[in-house]
Amino acid sequence: MIKYSINRGINKPMEFKGLKAQYIGYLAAGLGLALIAFAIGYITGMSMYLCLSMAVLLTTADFALVFHLSATYGEHGLMKKLARNQVPDSVIIRSRKIFYNLVKTDHGT
Question: Can you give the C-alpha Rg of the chain in angstroms?
């Protein structure tokens, strides 16, 4: 019998077979999509061998991509990279109107 240990320590990320944090969810979502693709192919009348080979290919690609992302970016690196892409290079303000109504406040005094 195979035992899988899941790290559930306090203040430690959840880990399963080397995957940390959100990558476990990404792997599960990819496997679910591969299963749905197999079911749709089978229902539409595709050959069983073609459906099976497609599902195996999608599953293998999913495993390879998720483990690569986990090794490259770590626990939070991918989220930081995606957030960094949302920040604009520059902010262009063509009017000074937004500065007219600023009020100085004392914080903490």
Answer: 24
